[in-house]
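Lecture notes, continued. The same structure-token format from the folding unit now serves as the input rather than the output. Read the line below as a description of shape only.
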């Protein structure tokens, strides 16, 4: 048996070498299809299928807070977590952490780094371990205890060149000394910041804002008890939240908690995007396999006399089928191996194109499971491509094929399969073109969005002056303002705790003086602290009242601004200007103006409600000290970076300057996921259409070639060349219509699942569906036109002489 199989493969290799052009086309088609499929599955496997890399990850959840409006946020109040930890029957351990930014001073220029603060149970839940040194001791978690820090492995390699002697040394983080006690393992899984630089112990001051009910800031992860599932934790968490709502109505009325499997929390919306990408790649692979199958079927039809002779002299039909299968498998194996070699390059390109950081990107590699999927793809492609050819090889009557002229063995089955391939390619192409069109139109609509401010000519950066060197933030920012204003081309400078698309916003509640404290019914809002002139620098409008002035400092009467959304929700039907609110313990804070809504975080979501305070009247020192600076310039904003750095260092050479970006770049990042989807699906749909058009051309050309004698007879009997051309095109367009009908049904079926990825366009956009259908019809007609034209130019005398 093995000798026969080896003989079949050698014969298949010789046969493929005789038709190098067809062989190269088949292999190239399979390389693209299998390479793309393997690449996408590599990403899908790491992000969506493979468990998180720590023990009991399938029993681990993240806890989310649920606000009164039903909005889900990834943070919970610390007292609620303490009570859940004490009363839950399903949770084995519950850890608390938060993302932080720190200013690092060690052996050079100060720099801003990302960090995570965690408690001891957070470390146990994620099973964090030190590769060098140790993790935190018990005293490190006590408020006022000695400062300790653990370095992430990547940061240790990047910043300290893998120097083991750093363990035990002291570095400065935000003016405070911290002893480096260890370095995490290289493969440590850290959350909520997936790639932090440092890990620090979480230490809360007793009685501080962070220990109060209703202040939702903490990221929490929990592990279910052995034998219980994440669903058990979900029910338990919901029950505890409901009980706390009744026990603490002032802080918890309308506030809930929700548990979500940690892997789902990490992947978020990426899952739907990867599912769409997988479906698109599968469609491309299907089209590729159908094209290969049609090419192999054509080759089998040419060899019909050969197969008939083999069967006539006693050859087994199974032996003939195995020969065809061996040929198909050889081509698929070569294409699969080359596709596997191409897959890492395609995966790297996919990761490079993806906007931001793909969840679990560090875990993406070609695994054993990926190799098995690639092998399955090779086998599936070879079998799918060879089935019609095997039936063609042994399905016809040997007597008929022996009497047929060479290459004329074109059975009805072959014609039916050709029409099936034709229609299937049209259907898949139409669905992909429609989906890509939806995403492209979404991107076009997003480009028309007005964010509520003028992004062009705006440069932003985060300033974090040292508390030790700059004890007065107000004085530092006045000097920085003067230094930046002296740069040629700068027209306006201001600062704020938060800027649009800069992150770091804070939510809180306030009460209206004229309504009194209504407890759970008090308005909720986001809060920002800004300098006078901020709205002028970013190009936002004051739509009522006035803006902040220099008189609105710490010595002035407390004032505030509200945006249009907050005015509409908290002061519905009233003029908020002149109204007084009670916020954060400060009473009689007067609203002096209404500012236009500004988009934040998302271009497609409504602008969030926002309460603005003068930054010198804000109680939190960290907000007054660490601010985003906005610079309006008449020059190219990006070209201003070097001058800005020089101006900052002229005020304080040790002050770090980070997150230096133009506002246009921030908006571009906000739309990057939409661009990525549109570009990727557009590219795949273009590839699918190209493969489909090549297939259509090949099918029609093959049909015309096999019917040359029939066409010659028709022409000899008086049929005009125009009629021949019209007949061939008509047959092609009828098949196109059938495929398009299937594609229309498929498009309408999958459209609702895309709703979360769209903006400004209906999922079942009729005009777009019509446009896609017309485009596919036009492309199919163009592909069929050249063979149809050749059919009309057949010479009847030559065609009738052909034996």
């Amino acid at each position: 048996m093995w000798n026969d199989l080896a003989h079949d493969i050698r014969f298949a290799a010789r046969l493929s070498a005789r038709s190098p052009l067809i062989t190269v086309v088949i292999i190239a088609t399979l390389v693209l299809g299998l390479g793309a499929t393997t690449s996408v599955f590599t990403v899908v496997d790491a992000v969506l299928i493979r468990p998180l890399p720590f023990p009991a990850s399938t029993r681990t959840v993240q806890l989310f807070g649920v606000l009164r409006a039903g909005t889900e946020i990834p943070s919970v109040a610390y007292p609620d977590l303490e009570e859940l930890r004490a009363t839950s029957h399903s949770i084995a351990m519950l850890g608390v952490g938060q993302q932080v930014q720190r200013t690092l001073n060690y052996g050079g220029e100060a720099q801003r780094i990302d960090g995570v603060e965690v408690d001891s149970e957070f470390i146990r839940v994620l099973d964090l371990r030190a590769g060098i040194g140790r993790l935190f001791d018990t005293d490190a978690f006590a408020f006022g205890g000695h400062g300790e820090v653990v370095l992430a492995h990547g940061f240790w390699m990047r910043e300290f060149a893998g120097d083991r002697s750093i363990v035990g040394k002291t570095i400065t983080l935000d003016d405070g000394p911290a002893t480096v006690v260890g370095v995490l393992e290289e493969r440590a899984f850290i959350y909520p910041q997936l790639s932090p630089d440092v890990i620090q112990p979480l230490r809360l001051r007793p009685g501080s804002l962070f220990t109060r009910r209703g202040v939702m800031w903490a990221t929490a992860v929990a592990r279910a008890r052995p034998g219980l599932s994440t669903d058990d934790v979900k029910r338990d968490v919901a029950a505890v939240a409901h009980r706390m709502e009744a026990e603490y109505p002032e802080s918890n009325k309308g506030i809930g908690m929700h548990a979500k499997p940690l892997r789902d929390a990490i992947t978020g919306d990426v899952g739907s995007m990867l599912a769409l990408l997988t479906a698109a790649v599968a469609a491309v692979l299907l089209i590729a396999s159908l094209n290969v199958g049609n090419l192999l079927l054509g080759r089998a039809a040419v060899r019909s006399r050969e197969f008939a002779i083999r069967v006539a002299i006693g050859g087994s039909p199974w032996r003939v089928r195995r020969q065809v299968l061996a040929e198909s498998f050889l081509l698929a194996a070569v294409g699969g191996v080359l596709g596997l070699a191409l897959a890492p390059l395609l995966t790297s390109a996919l990761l490079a194109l993806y906007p931001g950081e793909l969840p679990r990107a560090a875990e993406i590699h070609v695994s054993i499971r990926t190799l098995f999927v690639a092998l399955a793809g090779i086998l599936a492609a070879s079998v799918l491509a060879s089935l019609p050819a095997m039936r063609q090889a042994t399905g016809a009557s040997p007597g008929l094929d022996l009497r047929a002229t060479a290459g004329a063995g074109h059975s009805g089955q072959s014609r039916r399969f050709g029409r099936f391939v034709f229609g299937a390619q049209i259907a898949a192409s139409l669905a992909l073109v429609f989906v890509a069109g939806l995403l492209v139109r979404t991107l076009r609509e997003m480009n028309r969005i007005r964010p509520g401010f003028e992004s062009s000519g705006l440069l932003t950066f985060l300033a974090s002056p040292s508390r030790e060197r700059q004890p007065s933030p107000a004085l530092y920012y006045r000097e920085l303002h003067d230094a930046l204003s002296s740069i040629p081309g700068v027209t306006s400078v201001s600062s704020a705790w938060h800027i649009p698309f800069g992150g770091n916003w804070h939510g809180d509640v306030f009460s209206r003086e004229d309504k009194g404290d209504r407890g759970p019914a008090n308005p909720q809002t986001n809060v920002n602290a800004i300098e006078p002139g901020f709205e002028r620098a970013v190009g936002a409008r004051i739509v009522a009242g006035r803006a902040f002035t220099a008189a609105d400092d710490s010595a002035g009467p407390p004032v505030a601004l509200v945006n249009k959304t907050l005015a509409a929700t908290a002061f519905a039907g009233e003029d908020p200007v002149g109204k007084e609110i009670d916020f954060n313990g400060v009473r009689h804070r007067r609203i002096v103006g209404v500012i236009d809504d500004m988009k934040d975080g998302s271009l497609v979501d409504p602008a969030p409600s926002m309460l603005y305070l003068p930054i010198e009247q804000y109680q939190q020192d960290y907000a007054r000290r660490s601010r985003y600076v906005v610079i309006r310039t008449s020059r190219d904003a990006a070209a201003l970076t070097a001058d800005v750095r020089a101006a900052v260092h002229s005020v304080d050479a040790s002050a770090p300057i980070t997150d230096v970006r133009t506002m246009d770049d921030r908006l571009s990042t906000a739309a990057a996921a939409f661009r990525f989807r549109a570009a990727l699906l557009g590219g795949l749909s273009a590839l699918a259409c190209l493969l489909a058009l090549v297939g259509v051309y090949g099918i029609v050309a093959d049909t015309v070639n096999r019917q040359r004698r029939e066409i010659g007879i028709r022409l000899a009997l008086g049929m005009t060349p125009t009629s021949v051309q019209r007949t061939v095109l008509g047959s092609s367009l009828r098949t196109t219509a059938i495929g398009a009908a299937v594609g229309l049904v498929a498009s309408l079926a999958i459209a609702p699942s895309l709703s979360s990825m769209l903006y400004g366009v209906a999922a079942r956009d009729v005009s777009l569906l019509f446009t896609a259908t017309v485009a596919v019809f036009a492309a199919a007609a163009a592909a069929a036109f050249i063979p149809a034209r050749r059919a009309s130019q057949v010479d009847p005398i030559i065609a009738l002489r052909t034996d």
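Point for the exam: DSSP finds 25 helices and 24 strands in the chain.
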